[in-house]
Amino acid sequence: MFDSVAAYSQDVRPVWLWLDPTTRCNLACRLCYTKQSHGKLDMDPDDLRRSLRKLTSSPTIEVKTIHLNWRGEPLMNPHFAELLAVTRDEMPGIQLQWHTNGTMLTEKRFREVLAVRHRHKIFVSIDGGNRLSHDLNRGEGSFDRSMRGLRTLLDLAEGDPWVKVGVYQIDLGEPLEAYDPTFLELLERVDDHVKVTPLLPGGLHQALPDPSGLESEEELHRMMNQDVNPRFPCRRAPASGPGTSCASPPTATCPSA
Ligand SMILES: C[S@@+](CC[C@H](N)C(=O)[O-])C[C@H]1O[C@@H](n2cnc3c(N)ncnc32)[C@H](O)[C@@H]1O
Ligand code: SF4
User: Fold this and answer.
1) Is 99 in the pocket of ligand 1 (CB under 6 A)?
2) 82 lines ligand 1 (CB under 6 A)
3) How crowded is residue 122: how many other Cβ atoms within 10 Å of its Cβ?
Protein backbone atom coordinates (compact mmCIF):
# COMPACT_ATOMS: atom_id res chain seq x y z
CA MET A 1 0.00 0.00 0.00
CA PHE A 2 2.71 2.44 0.98
CA ASP A 3 4.53 1.82 -2.31
CA SER A 4 1.49 2.80 -4.33
CA VAL A 5 0.96 5.91 -2.24
CA ALA A 6 4.55 6.91 -2.85
CA ALA A 7 4.17 6.31 -6.58
CA TYR A 8 1.22 8.67 -6.69
CA SER A 9 3.32 11.79 -6.73
CA GLN A 10 6.92 12.90 -6.55
CA ASP A 11 6.00 15.77 -4.24
CA VAL A 12 6.71 15.27 -0.58
CA ARG A 13 3.39 14.65 1.12
CA PRO A 14 2.82 15.45 4.78
CA VAL A 15 1.01 12.47 6.32
CA TRP A 16 -0.99 12.00 9.48
CA LEU A 17 -0.67 8.26 9.99
CA TRP A 18 -3.42 6.28 11.71
CA LEU A 19 -2.49 2.75 12.76
CA ASP A 20 -4.62 0.08 14.39
CA PRO A 21 -2.87 -1.65 17.29
CA THR A 22 -5.82 -4.02 17.45
CA THR A 23 -9.29 -4.60 16.09
CA ARG A 24 -10.50 -5.90 19.45
CA CYS A 25 -12.54 -3.94 21.94
CA ASN A 26 -13.87 -4.62 25.41
CA LEU A 27 -16.87 -2.30 24.89
CA ALA A 28 -19.55 -1.96 22.21
CA CYS A 29 -20.46 1.71 22.32
CA ARG A 30 -23.73 2.61 20.66
CA LEU A 31 -22.21 5.53 18.74
CA CYS A 32 -18.90 3.93 17.80
CA TYR A 33 -18.10 4.53 14.14
CA THR A 34 -15.62 1.68 13.97
CA LYS A 35 -17.67 -1.00 15.70
CA GLN A 36 -18.72 -2.77 12.53
CA SER A 37 -15.10 -3.47 11.65
CA HIS A 38 -14.03 -4.83 15.03
CA GLY A 39 -12.48 -8.28 15.05
CA LYS A 40 -9.83 -10.34 16.80
CA LEU A 41 -6.57 -9.11 15.31
CA ASP A 42 -3.65 -7.60 17.21
CA MET A 43 -0.83 -5.76 15.47
CA ASP A 44 2.54 -7.45 15.78
CA PRO A 45 5.45 -5.17 16.79
CA ASP A 46 7.66 -6.59 14.02
CA ASP A 47 5.00 -5.85 11.39
CA LEU A 48 4.78 -2.31 12.68
CA ARG A 49 8.55 -1.92 12.50
CA ARG A 50 8.58 -3.12 8.88
CA SER A 51 5.77 -0.76 7.87
CA LEU A 52 7.35 2.25 9.55
CA ARG A 53 10.70 1.50 7.89
CA LYS A 54 9.00 1.49 4.49
CA LEU A 55 7.54 4.85 5.24
CA THR A 56 10.72 6.42 6.55
CA SER A 57 12.59 5.26 3.45
CA SER A 58 10.05 6.86 1.13
CA PRO A 59 11.32 10.07 -0.48
CA THR A 60 7.77 11.35 -0.99
CA ILE A 61 6.18 10.78 2.43
CA GLU A 62 6.84 12.87 5.47
CA VAL A 63 5.01 11.59 8.53
CA LYS A 64 4.01 14.52 10.71
CA THR A 65 1.81 12.82 13.30
CA ILE A 66 1.10 9.23 14.26
CA HIS A 67 -2.19 8.20 15.73
CA LEU A 68 -1.82 4.79 17.34
CA ASN A 69 -5.46 3.80 17.28
CA TRP A 70 -8.50 3.77 15.13
CA ARG A 71 -10.60 0.69 15.62
CA GLY A 72 -10.88 -1.05 18.96
CA GLU A 73 -9.26 -0.42 22.29
CA PRO A 74 -5.46 -0.10 21.99
CA LEU A 75 -4.86 -1.59 25.43
CA MET A 76 -6.53 -4.84 24.33
CA ASN A 77 -3.25 -5.55 22.55
CA PRO A 78 -0.98 -7.08 25.21
CA HIS A 79 2.03 -5.73 23.26
CA PHE A 80 0.82 -2.15 23.18
CA ALA A 81 3.82 -0.81 25.13
CA GLU A 82 6.11 -2.54 22.61
CA LEU A 83 4.24 -0.85 19.74
CA LEU A 84 4.88 2.49 21.41
CA ALA A 85 8.55 1.64 21.76
CA VAL A 86 8.81 0.62 18.08
CA THR A 87 7.16 3.88 17.03
CA ARG A 88 9.57 5.86 19.17
CA ASP A 89 12.60 3.96 17.82
CA GLU A 90 11.61 4.15 14.15
CA MET A 91 10.18 7.66 14.13
CA PRO A 92 11.80 9.54 16.98
CA GLY A 93 10.59 13.08 17.37
CA ILE A 94 7.30 12.49 15.53
CA GLN A 95 4.27 13.55 17.49
CA LEU A 96 2.25 10.56 18.72
CA GLN A 97 -1.30 10.39 20.04
CA TRP A 98 -3.66 7.63 21.02
CA HIS A 99 -7.13 7.29 22.50
CA THR A 100 -8.35 4.87 25.11
CA ASN A 101 -11.72 4.23 26.68
CA GLY A 102 -9.90 4.30 30.02
CA THR A 103 -11.49 1.16 31.40
CA MET A 104 -8.30 -0.89 31.22
CA LEU A 105 -6.03 1.75 32.70
CA THR A 106 -4.80 -0.13 35.72
CA GLU A 107 -1.76 1.22 37.49
CA LYS A 108 0.30 -1.76 36.25
CA ARG A 109 -0.74 -1.17 32.63
CA PHE A 110 0.07 2.49 32.91
CA ARG A 111 3.46 1.99 34.40
CA GLU A 112 4.22 -0.26 31.40
CA VAL A 113 3.13 2.44 28.96
CA LEU A 114 4.82 5.31 30.78
CA ALA A 115 8.06 3.37 30.98
CA VAL A 116 8.41 3.96 27.22
CA ARG A 117 10.02 7.37 27.26
CA HIS A 118 8.41 9.03 24.30
CA ARG A 119 6.57 12.31 23.88
CA HIS A 120 2.97 11.41 23.41
CA LYS A 121 -0.54 12.53 24.17
CA ILE A 122 -3.10 10.12 25.59
CA PHE A 123 -6.78 10.97 25.19
CA VAL A 124 -9.29 9.30 27.49
CA SER A 125 -12.76 9.17 25.93
CA ILE A 126 -15.54 10.44 28.16
CA ASP A 127 -18.93 11.06 26.56
CA GLY A 128 -21.77 13.36 27.49
CA GLY A 129 -20.40 14.66 30.77
CA ASN A 130 -22.02 12.49 33.40
CA ARG A 131 -22.60 8.86 34.36
CA LEU A 132 -26.01 8.60 32.70
CA SER A 133 -25.08 9.87 29.25
CA HIS A 134 -21.66 8.17 29.20
CA ASP A 135 -23.10 4.81 30.27
CA LEU A 136 -25.92 5.08 27.76
CA ASN A 137 -23.34 5.15 25.02
CA ARG A 138 -20.64 2.94 26.52
CA GLY A 139 -22.47 0.52 28.81
CA GLU A 140 -23.35 0.42 32.46
CA GLY A 141 -20.46 0.93 34.86
CA SER A 142 -18.13 2.30 32.21
CA PHE A 143 -18.25 5.90 33.44
CA ASP A 144 -16.90 4.94 36.86
CA ARG A 145 -14.22 2.73 35.32
CA SER A 146 -13.15 5.44 32.87
CA MET A 147 -13.06 8.05 35.65
CA ARG A 148 -10.84 5.75 37.71
CA GLY A 149 -8.57 5.24 34.70
CA LEU A 150 -8.34 8.95 33.97
CA ARG A 151 -7.50 9.73 37.59
CA THR A 152 -4.84 7.02 37.71
CA LEU A 153 -3.32 8.34 34.50
CA LEU A 154 -3.31 11.94 35.73
CA ASP A 155 -1.72 10.92 39.03
CA LEU A 156 1.00 8.85 37.37
CA ALA A 157 1.70 11.33 34.57
CA GLU A 158 1.87 14.35 36.86
CA GLY A 159 5.17 16.13 36.34
CA ASP A 160 6.18 13.67 33.60
CA PRO A 161 7.52 15.79 30.74
CA TRP A 162 6.94 13.00 28.20
CA VAL A 163 3.22 12.53 28.56
CA LYS A 164 0.29 14.87 28.01
CA VAL A 165 -3.21 13.81 29.00
CA GLY A 166 -6.37 14.84 27.19
CA VAL A 167 -10.08 14.16 27.38
CA TYR A 168 -11.94 13.46 24.14
CA GLN A 169 -15.63 14.00 24.66
CA ILE A 170 -18.53 13.23 22.38
CA ASP A 171 -21.01 16.04 22.96
CA LEU A 172 -24.40 14.56 23.81
CA GLY A 173 -26.07 17.86 24.50
CA GLU A 174 -25.66 17.83 28.27
CA PRO A 175 -25.52 21.34 29.72
CA LEU A 176 -22.49 22.13 31.85
CA GLU A 177 -24.68 22.23 34.97
CA ALA A 178 -25.43 18.54 34.45
CA TYR A 179 -21.76 17.52 34.33
CA ASP A 180 -20.53 15.14 36.99
CA PRO A 181 -18.46 16.98 39.66
CA THR A 182 -15.67 14.37 39.48
CA PHE A 183 -15.49 14.83 35.73
CA LEU A 184 -15.26 18.60 36.13
CA GLU A 185 -12.55 18.18 38.76
CA LEU A 186 -10.50 15.94 36.46
CA LEU A 187 -11.06 18.25 33.48
CA GLU A 188 -9.25 20.95 35.45
CA ARG A 189 -6.15 18.75 35.46
CA VAL A 190 -5.92 17.71 31.79
CA ASP A 191 -3.66 19.32 29.18
CA ASP A 192 -6.25 19.17 26.41
CA HIS A 193 -10.02 18.85 26.16
CA VAL A 194 -11.57 18.10 22.77
CA LYS A 195 -15.36 18.07 22.50
CA VAL A 196 -16.91 16.81 19.27
CA THR A 197 -20.29 16.38 17.68
CA PRO A 198 -20.95 12.66 17.06
CA LEU A 199 -19.71 11.98 13.57
CA LEU A 200 -22.06 9.33 12.24
CA PRO A 201 -25.07 7.46 13.44
CA GLY A 202 -23.38 4.59 15.27
CA GLY A 203 -24.14 0.91 15.92
CA LEU A 204 -26.42 -1.34 14.00
CA HIS A 205 -28.90 -1.66 16.82
CA GLN A 206 -30.16 1.87 16.58
CA ALA A 207 -33.68 2.52 15.40
CA LEU A 208 -32.77 5.94 14.14
CA PRO A 209 -34.79 7.72 11.53
CA ASP A 210 -33.27 7.85 8.06
CA PRO A 211 -30.67 10.65 8.23
CA SER A 212 -30.65 11.28 4.46
CA GLY A 213 -33.44 13.86 4.67
CA LEU A 214 -31.65 15.96 7.26
CA GLU A 215 -30.72 19.42 6.10
CA SER A 216 -28.06 20.47 8.55
CA GLU A 217 -25.40 19.16 10.88
CA GLU A 218 -27.42 20.57 13.77
CA GLU A 219 -30.34 18.34 12.85
CA LEU A 220 -28.08 15.30 12.76
CA HIS A 221 -26.69 16.23 16.14
CA ARG A 222 -30.16 16.57 17.57
CA MET A 223 -31.14 13.23 16.14
CA MET A 224 -28.13 11.52 17.74
CA ASN A 225 -28.85 13.15 21.06
CA GLN A 226 -32.43 11.99 20.96
CA ASP A 227 -31.36 8.41 20.60
CA VAL A 228 -28.68 8.40 23.23
CA ASN A 229 -29.67 10.93 25.80
CA PRO A 230 -33.09 10.68 27.36
CA ARG A 231 -32.65 14.09 28.95
CA PHE A 232 -32.49 15.76 25.61
CA PRO A 233 -35.86 17.46 25.34
CA CYS A 234 -37.00 16.60 21.82
CA ARG A 235 -38.67 13.29 21.07
CA ARG A 236 -39.48 12.23 17.57
CA ALA A 237 -43.02 10.98 17.21
CA PRO A 238 -43.60 7.40 15.97
CA ALA A 239 -43.33 7.05 12.19
CA SER A 240 -47.12 6.97 11.82
CA GLY A 241 -47.59 10.07 14.00
CA PRO A 242 -48.20 13.61 12.90
CA GLY A 243 -44.58 14.78 13.18
CA THR A 244 -42.28 15.73 15.97
CA SER A 245 -43.53 16.10 19.46
CA CYS A 246 -41.61 18.15 21.96
CA ALA A 247 -41.93 18.11 25.71
CA SER A 248 -39.30 20.75 25.99
CA PRO A 249 -38.32 23.87 27.80
CA PRO A 250 -38.92 26.95 25.62
CA THR A 251 -35.26 27.15 24.52
CA ALA A 252 -35.26 23.80 22.72
CA THR A 253 -35.79 23.66 18.97
CA CYS A 254 -37.24 20.45 17.62
CA PRO A 255 -36.47 19.28 14.12
CA SER A 256 -39.51 18.94 11.96
CA ALA A 257 -40.33 15.46 10.80
C1 LIG B 1 -12.98 4.45 17.80
S2 LIG B 1 -12.29 4.97 19.32
C3 LIG B 1 -10.90 3.89 19.59
C4 LIG B 1 -10.17 4.19 20.90
C5 LIG B 1 -10.84 3.75 22.19
N6 LIG B 1 -11.51 2.53 22.09
C7 LIG B 1 -11.74 4.86 22.71
O8 LIG B 1 -12.96 4.65 22.80
O9 LIG B 1 -11.20 5.90 23.05
C10 LIG B 1 -11.43 6.48 18.87
C11 LIG B 1 -12.18 7.74 19.23
O12 LIG B 1 -13.32 7.84 18.41
C13 LIG B 1 -14.36 8.43 19.17
N14 LIG B 1 -15.63 8.12 18.56
C15 LIG B 1 -16.24 6.92 18.44
N16 LIG B 1 -17.41 7.03 17.79
C17 LIG B 1 -17.57 8.34 17.51
C18 LIG B 1 -18.60 9.10 16.85
N19 LIG B 1 -19.69 8.55 16.37
N20 LIG B 1 -18.39 10.43 16.73
C21 LIG B 1 -17.27 11.04 17.20
N22 LIG B 1 -16.27 10.36 17.82
C23 LIG B 1 -16.43 9.04 17.98
C24 LIG B 1 -14.19 7.82 20.54
O25 LIG B 1 -14.82 8.60 21.54
C26 LIG B 1 -12.69 7.79 20.68
O27 LIG B 1 -12.22 8.96 21.31
S1 SF4 C 1 -15.61 3.94 20.87
FE2 SF4 C 1 -13.77 2.88 21.52
S3 SF4 C 1 -14.45 1.72 23.31
FE4 SF4 C 1 -16.27 2.27 22.24
S5 SF4 C 1 -16.71 0.49 20.92
FE6 SF4 C 1 -15.57 2.02 19.73
S7 SF4 C 1 -13.50 1.36 19.88
FE8 SF4 C 1 -14.61 0.36 21.55
Assistant:
1) yes
2) no
3) 27
- The tens digit of pLDDT for each residue in 141-160 reads 999 999 999 999 999 999 99
Q: Alpha-carbon distance 23 to 36, whole Å? A: 10
C-alpha to C-alpha distance for 28 and 41, rounded to whole angstroms: 16
Helix (H, G, I), strand (E, B) or coil at 5: helix
Q: Which amino acid is at 32?
A: C
- Nearest Cα residue to 45 out of 86, 14, 78: 86
Q: Regarding the domain with residue range 2-235, which homologous superfamily does it belong to in the CATH classification?
A: Aldolase class I (3.20.20.70)
Strand order in the sheet with 13-18: 13-18, 61-67, 95-100, 120-125, 163-170, 192-196
Say if strands 95-100 and 61-67 run parallel, antiparallel, or are unpaired: parallel
Domain boundaries, the chain: 2-235
Give this prediction's pTM. Answer: 0.79
Q: Is the pLDDT of residue 238 over 50?
A: no
Please work out whether the CB of residue 20 comes within 6 Å of at least one atom of ligand 1: no
pLDDT band at 222 (very low <50, low <70, confident <90, very high): low
Cα–Cα–Cα angle for 71, 102, 184, rounded to 5 degrees: 125
pLDDT at 95 over 70: yes
Pocket test for ligand 2, best of 18, 29, 143 (most atoms within 8 A of CB): 29
**Residue 146 CB less than 6 A away from ligand 1:** no
